[in-house]
Amino acid sequence: MIFPSPIHALNWLSSTVDSSQVLAIFSKLFTSDDAFRPDEFDVDAKSGFFPPAPLPKLPDEFAEWEAAFAAAPGILALGEDKSEEALSKRSDGAWWRSNARSWPVKDIDILCGDIRLLQRAHMVLASLLHFYVHSLPPTDSAIIVPKSIAIPLVKVSRELSMAPVLTFADTVLWNWELIDPSLPVRVDNMRYLNIFSGTETERAFYLASAAVELKGVEMLDIFNRFQNLPASSYTDAHVMAQLAKDLGQLASIVNELTQIFQSMRETVDPTDFYWAVRPWWAGATSKGPNHPGWIFEGVPNGDSAHLDLGGASAGQSSVMHALDVFLDIDHRLATKRKPAPSEPNRRADLGFMQRMWRYMPGKHREYLTRLRSVRPVVERAPSLRDSYNAAVRALKTLRDFHIRIVAIYVVTKAGSTPPARFALDEHEGTEGTQKNGPARGTGGSEVSNLLKAGRDATQRALLQE
Ligand code: HEM
């Protein structure tokens, strides 16, 4: 059959197939060679930003890294932990660290070209880095990261174009195996490998984050479909009707994300989270600007002034950033929108969200760079406004809830005295415990102000009815 134009084809399609398939078929038929293909950005159709299968172990040449990685949770405790159990681990921990210092500096060339092996190497090395640093006795001096870890980690990170430190990808995206390898990647079929603190709370946090990522795959479908619509279709009633439906669906998905966040209240214990789990994720800058941070031995300019060493945060989840890009949430306050930003909004760390992009794998960052926002289309099509606004409102509700979670899990804990069972020294300043200042997040940002500014930026995306 020959159609005089894509729109004629669309009309014919609409009369013959289920309307939910129209956009997908239309995009496939009429997009050009530079079509948006998520797999080019290491985004899988079924597992999204997760790799489609668990990462393979590193080749035998790297057996020392793999063995130290597997043994670390049983051997090491937080350096600031003075509990009996932690004290009983001290000498084995010192041995583990001296062993790591004695490794030769391994060449990573044989891993280059295989993205899965590079990802595994990043996950293993970044975890070794955090085990090493955070199991040391607390100190006010700079922490020297041995060259056996520092040099290959920096090289692998350059290959992947991401920060040489523990990230969301290392803790959540790459840190699992399948319980039953014959079944697909689903939250109830994933077992997390490295649990720094050994707590169920840490495991539950990773699983909830995984649930967000996998639910997010449904959002990515919507973004990808939109991405492949030619601009000429924006005036077509069928396309607009389907887009309105997709935006409505997006709002429902975001509401489901809020439910996943809510479920964390039952599985993630605030006290364990703050005192036992979070300190392991902290980066070189989390103790504030006066701490000298970390020095990567053998790496030119190997300090936090030159390397991104902020540490791991769910704020690095590419799926959440993709949602922001698609809806065009203006975290930097770069566009004039109403209501005008408050004083605290302006004082917030406006570069935080953009900075988090550097902690994502380079391919995922490229995906975000290529993703277009639906907002300019909605601005010209009043029929889309309600469903767009519904999606924005759903995201604002999610951020409201996230702020409440952070108040319970971080803000009220900051500056408080650790419960006796953690046997931590009060003054030692676990991440965010600065006695006289506001709670700080990964990378040292003031948490409350930052998150409220993000919530208000979301609200500001609403289009006037
Ligand atoms: C117990 C649960 C959680 C706590 C205590 C928590 C805590 C925080 C904190 C303190 C920040 C500020 C920045 C930082 O420190 O890195 C933050 C930001 C962020 N978190 Fe969470 N988080 C939780 C769950 C999650 C989950 C499950 C996700 C999604 C995968 C998520 C996504 C984000 C995002 C995208 C940001 C950036 C700011 C924003 O988008 O509003 N968080 N979180």
TrEMBL record:
Write out the GO biological process terms: 'de novo' NAD+ biosynthetic process from L-tryptophan; L-tryptophan catabolic process to kynurenine
Alphabetized GO MF terms: heme binding; indoleamine 2,3-dioxygenase activity; metal ion binding
GO CC annotation, single: cytoplasm
Q: Which UniProt keywords apply?
A: Dioxygenase, Heme, Iron, Metal-binding, Oxidoreductase
Residue ranges, annotated region (Disordered): 421-465
Q: Which residues bind heme b?
A: 402
Family per UniProt?
A: Belongs to the indoleamine 2,3-dioxygenase family.
Can you say what this protein is called? Indoleamine 2,3-dioxygenase
Task: Give the source species.
Answer: Daedalea quercina L-15889
